[in-house]
């Protein structure tokens, strides 16, 4: 697969995950960076793919991948965190 992908979920009870997903997509949209939103709630195989790319069997969304290169987990910008891979 090529291009930037953001693994997310449309089904979650976690406010933190919802907030992080919204912030990632807001920033990417604001910078006019094209990406594919991959909803892992649609298929367990997508969740497994996300976790394999992240190298973490317990990884949760949002996760960011560029092509087949794992870029990082969203850590937020407010606390000085960032996304790996130099996206920002």
Automatic annotation (TrEMBL):
Annotated localization: Cell projection, Ruffle membrane; Cytoplasm, Cytosol; Nucleus
GO cellular component term of the entry, any: nucleus
Glycoprotein recorded as keyword: yes
Broad class of the protein's primary localization: membrane
Top-level taxon of the source organism: Eukaryota
Entry keywords, A to Z: Acetylation, Cell membrane, Cell projection, Cytoplasm, Glycoprotein, Membrane, Nucleus
Gene3D superfamilies: Glutaredoxin
Subunit annotation: Homodimer. Interacts with MYO1C (via its IQ motifs); the interaction is dependent on calcium and takes place at membrane ruffles.
Function: Could act as a modulator of glutaredoxin biological activity. May play a role in cytoskeleton organization.
Family per record: Belongs to the SH3BGR family.
Protein name according to UniProt: SH3 domain-binding glutamic acid-rich-like protein 3
Species of origin: Aotus nancymaae (Ma's night monkey)
Gene responsible for this protein: SH3BGRL3
